[in-house]
Amino acid sequence: MSQYKETVEQFANLIGQQAGTWDAISPEYAARMAVQNRFRTGLDIARYTADIMRQDMAEYDADSSQYTQSLGCWHGFVGQQKLIAIKKHHGTTNKRYLYLSGWMIAALRSEFGPLPDQSMHEKTSVPALIEELYTFLRQADARELGHLFHELDAARATGDAAAEQAAQDKIDNYETHVVPIVADIDAGFGNEEATYLLAKKMIEAGACAIQIENQVSDAKQCGHQDGKVTVPHEDFLAKINAVRYAFLELGVPNGVIVARTDSLGAGLTQKIPVSTQAGDLASKYNAFLEVEPVMSADDVNEGDVILKQNGALVRPVRLPNGLYRFKAGTGEARCVLDCITSLQNGADLLWIETEKPHVGQIGGMVNEIRKVIPNAKLVYNNSPSFNWTLNFRQQVFDAWSAEGKDLSAYDRNGLMSVDYDNSELAVEADRWIQSFQADASREAGIFHHLITLPTYHTAALSTDILAQGYFGEEGMLAYVRGVQRQEIRRGIACVKHQDMAGSNMGDDHKEYFSGEAALKASGKDNTMNQFS
Fold first, then answer.
1. Do 2 and 89 fall into the same domain?
2. Which reaction is this enzyme known to catalyze (predicted)?
3. What is the C-alpha R_g of the chain?
4. Does 156 share its domain with 66?
């Protein structure tokens, strides 16, 4: 017996035990509503998606071509449409996730209005967006299953046994739109207790993977801005522990922690950790500090901090704001130490924030990490902050230069020019961009590729195109030709926006509740019928 039929039978038995008081309740309708709401709570989602991520991680370890991907979504509707599109075009959501970007929450979801990515937005907006995303994904399930139930009813009405079985199989083998979310907790929005409390709310909303970075919480900057300040490893590990405790407390032992290091672009630290013996973690961190030799008391100013390193006294270089500076050129080494330390202390995945998308640079650091942690793997930001076109054209230019190829037709600094768009170099660069994710997953240990804020840009771009035409000579044709006709031609379900918003599901429920007395919206005068 199919799972759907078993659910119908269970409700029939339950209703039969109520001495006739529930006779108005249809076992099949109750079963449909239950099937349409597979995930009762956010914790159900977190447990389900954590298991998916763990399986995907194991499959990637066995075969690096099995990497995963996601796009950042700033609204539940955007996330919903992304997953609907993935199922439509690719047939499955396998290896596809959602990314929740702190940058986009700051820019688009704060009650303060648009903010920079500096952890100034309300921390509660993070779990609120997770809950919103999963509300829309569950609604996508309910809508699609509702259509399948109508297929089942139509087949039964015509007595077509084959069509009925086909519809039944679709229901029983239905693939949910609910997928893992990698959720950005920034630097934890405070101390380790604050991190734990927010992590709990995020997990309760459905997050199975939490990304946390090693910046100072109250001085947090976007990974692609200047002025980043990192914390000592001990402080960061305390926050990793806080997130793990939150997962364990809530019964999500497979929860995934992504440890992000911003050390590549961070030249400052706020705190000098206490070292108790040579070679301990604190001394390794302090060894990266820019220091000046201290030969006598005359070399020391009032209030200076003095360290003993390798048997000599040194003074860390301190800025007027009290921050300490790292030695130039130590970023990659600090990233490697950050990553090894995080994996050795409870993190599951790594995130190295880089200043450019370069497989060689990323792979060089991962190779060093893997000398200690052989299965180390990354979540990587395919960031819109990179000028991908210019970066890859310059990478091809440099590669060709090393090969001795004649490059007299190209100006390396001007390669962004439209004049080069159809050149041999530009075509090759586009091939490199196209294969970047596969190449980096094979050569640089990247398990998950994401774009942090793509839908921020797509919303701006599509609005610009529509506004140009609609408020210009095209008028209504700009919408019809550029939007609605494209929706119809591409089979985008949202062209029937009433159905997407839940009108048909509401009609079904009215019929369940009121029978023939139901006042339904989907009759012959509903203009949505023009899109049948």
1. no
2. D-threo-isocitrate = glyoxylate + succinate
3. 28
4. yes
pLDDT, position 434: 98
Residues marked as binding? 101-103, 184, 223-224, 260, 381-385, 452
Among residues 420, 452, 484, the one where a domain terminates is 452
SS3 assignment, position 250: coil
Print the domain residue range for 520: 496-531
The enclosing domain of 71 has a CATH number of 3.20.20.60
Q: Among 244, 236, 247, 313, which residue's Cα sits nearest to residue 281?
A: 236
**Binding region for substrate:** 101-103, 223-224, 260, 381-385, 452
Cα distances (angstroms) measured from residue 344 to each of 233, 339, 376, 405? 12, 9, 10, 45
Average pLDDT over residues 474-493: 93
- What average pLDDT does the segment 346-364 reach? 95
Per-residue pLDDT tens digits for 367-411? 999 999 999 999 999 999 999 999 999 999 999 999 999 999 999
Q: What percent of the chain has pLDDT over 90?
A: 81
Query: Residues 355-378: what's their mean pLDDT?
Result: 96
In this structure, is the dihedral angle defined by the CA atoms of residues 446, 252, 339 and 232, taken in order, positive or negative?
positive
The answer to the question of residue 320 being in a domain is no
Closest CA to 186 of 195, 175, 177: 195
> What is the C-alpha separation between 463 and 111, in angstroms, rounded?
23
Q: Say if residue 54 is in the same domain as residue 4.
A: no
Question: Does 488 map to a domain?
Answer: no
406: in domain: no
> In sequence order, which residues have a C-beta less than 8 Å from that of residue 171 and are 6 or more positions away?
2, 4, 35, 145, 148, 149, 152
Residues 247 and 371 in one domain: yes
* First-last CA distance in the chain: 34
Residue recorded with tokens 């099995």: 66
Examine the domain organization and report whether 156 and 240 are in the same domain: yes
Q: Which of 222, 335, 339, 494 is catalytic?
A: 222
pTM above the 0.85 mark?
A: yes
Give the tokens for residue 363. 């792979």
Listed residue (93, 77, 237) closest to 175, CA to CA? 93
48 and 167, same structural domain?
yes
Shared domain check, 154 and 138: yes
From start to end of 14-104, where are the E strands?
A: 68-72, 96-100
pLDDT confidence bin for 223, thresholds 50/70/90:
very low
Of the candidates 248, 240, 428, 450, the one whose C-alpha atom is nearest the C-alpha of residue 347 is 240
How many whole angstroms separate alpha carbon 179 and alpha carbon 156? Answer: 33
Question: What's the domain count of the chain?
Answer: 3
> Which residue has 């159809």 as its token pair?
422
Q: Do 513 and 441 sit in the same domain of this protein? A: no
222 is catalytic: yes
Contacts of 510 (CB under 8 A, 6+ apart): 518, 519, 520
